[in-house]
Amino acid sequence: MKRILSTLLLTFVSLSIFAQSEQEKNNDPVEEKTPYEKSVDVFKRGLRLDLNKEKTSYFKTIIGIQAWWRAGETNPGTTNALTGEPISNYSDFSMRRIRTMFYANIENKYLLFAHIGATSNATNSNINNNVYVHDFQGQIKIADQNYIGAGIHFWQGLARLSRVGSNNYLTVDHPYFNYPEVNRTDAIVRQMGVFARGNVLGKLGYQVSVNQPIISTVAGDPTVGGRPMSKSEMLEFAENGHPGATVGSTYLLKQTNYNYNGYFFWQFWDVEAQSVSGASQMNYFGQKRVFNIGAGFQYQPGGTGTYKEDINGDMYIQENDIKKFAVDVFLSTPLGNNGGGFTGYAVYYNYQYGNDYLRTLHVMGGFAGTDPNAPSSPQGPGFSQYSHGTGHIFHTELGYTLPKTIYNSEKKLQPYVSVSYKNLEGLDETSFQSDFGVNWAIIGQNVKLTAAYQLRPVYMINDLGKNVVDHHAGLFVTQLQLRI
To answer: How much of the chain is in helix, strand and coil states, percent to nearest 5?
Structure first.
């Protein structure tokens, strides 16, 4: 009995000591998080409403902005569209992108995604008429990590850079030629159709789609801005003696043919999570270990028309199929254990539209007019450039995240450089284009400041009638990106 009582007493004392120590441990003051750490937690979670106790079904909202200030040298012959006065430099404030996105995930089996926003609202824009639906798509899971879907969507293949999300860039903005039919046969790089996407064999990622064009009704000269024309409109241009209606010239056609798209990539290291929207990631700040090689295509039957002349000298329109092909490689890797990292991307595009097809493109260029009494660049006024055309384009982006950066290891300072080489049939000289900048990632891609300096080639017609590079013009851009 004494032994039993002694054992019980010792057990009670031991449990009391243990309980007291646990109480003291639990009563230890919890270290208060800093405002920065609290902000990081909020951004990581986002605006989310769980729909069940297990948190396997949820509704999520994302809102974001990209605000710009830019200043740069305009192309020769540019006037201020408001005053009519010639200008050689221009600066403005703008909202490059305004985004609101909605996700509904039901047990990872049924997905809905909607995307509403505005793009390219500068101080000269009509902001009241510029909010629209970007995406509205539904997806159904057919196997582990594999989905089919339909709607107006972003799953259009070709290359990683041709499906990058606007908040996921390495550079301050995309290089424009990666979205070749933007606002001409698509709506802000979206078309209506069906798609399939996912991973097979563990490492092979894919996305394929069949879509129909959304033909632009934008006003303006189609031989300058690339607006699609019908065959009868093209012939009318020729009958009226339009200077752009010459034998051999090629333009986009109005048509409703289905197009076919695909992109396939092998993931040598980490397998990336595919976003519901279709947007890829171009910048992990070197903190994720990714090495992918990919290839893609886009095929649009009867997408362009070329002016031809028969044996009687009469003009007719020859239809061409648009064929695009791309190969690319993406690398992201940490460097050491101190927060440093490398990001690299390279892509080759082969675009076939028909003889000498060219497209000029500008971003928020409504401020610019053309002076009819001054030598002007054939690529257009303001900050316009020859974006792409029939021919070859090579582009690369490189970024280095500095180790142990300012204030906190979570904050990243990342210088970058990008270079584009274009060899286009419609131009008499090849060109190089460059972009130098630095990202200050306060909270990753959620809170980021970027400063960049871009150099674009400016083409002029020389004394021999050749369209060649005359000089390079600079543009300085600063951006605030905020997204939750």
So the answer is: 10, 50, 35
* Residue-range domain boundaries for the chain: 64-93+153-483
Give the residue from 84, 36, 6 showing the smallest Cα distance to 409.
Answer: 36
What's the mean pLDDT when you consider all of the chain? 90
Give the count of beta carbons closer than 10 Å to the beta carbon of residue 176.
18
The closest of 15, 106, 17, 24 to 59, measured between CA atoms, is 106
- How is residue 445 written in tokens? 């891609």
Per-residue HEC secondary structure of 297-336 comes to EEEEEEEEEEEEECCCCCEEEEEEEEEEEEEEEEEEEEEC
pLDDT of 46 above 60: yes
Q: State the amino acid at position 180 in one-letter form.
A: P
Contacts of 277 (CB under 8 A, 6+ apart): 101, 113, 115, 135, 154, 165
Cβ atoms of 306 and 316 closer than 8 Å: no
Distance of alpha carbon 357 from alpha carbon 307, whole angstroms:
11
Q: Residue 253, Cα to own-chain centre: how many angstroms?
A: 25
Q: Decide if 158 contacts 261 (C-beta within 8 A).
A: yes
DSSP 214: -
Tokens of 272: 């990336």
Structure tokens at 256: 């409703």
* The pTM of the whole model exceeds 0.85: yes
pLDDT tens figures, 347-385: 999 999 999 999 999 899 989 999 998 999 999 999 999
* Topology of domain 64-93+153-483, CATH: Porin (2.40.160)
CA distance 422 to 359: 13
What does residue 15 show for φ and ψ, rounded to 5 degrees? Answer: -65, -35
Tokens 């409403």 belong to 49
> Once rounded to an integer, what is the mean pLDDT over residues 437-447?
95
| Bridge partners for 398 per DSSP | 344, 417
Write out pLDDT tens, residues 122-169: 887 766 667 889 999 999 999 999 999 999 999 988 999 999 988 899
Q: What is the DSSP letter of 6?
A: H
Estimate to the nearest angstrom the gap between the alpha carbon of 387 and the chain centroid: 15
For the four alpha carbons of 166, 281, 349 and 154, in that order, the dihedral sign comes to negative
Give the whole-angstrom CA distance, residue 171 versus residue 189.
Answer: 19
Q: Which two tokens stand for residue 70?
A: 């830019």
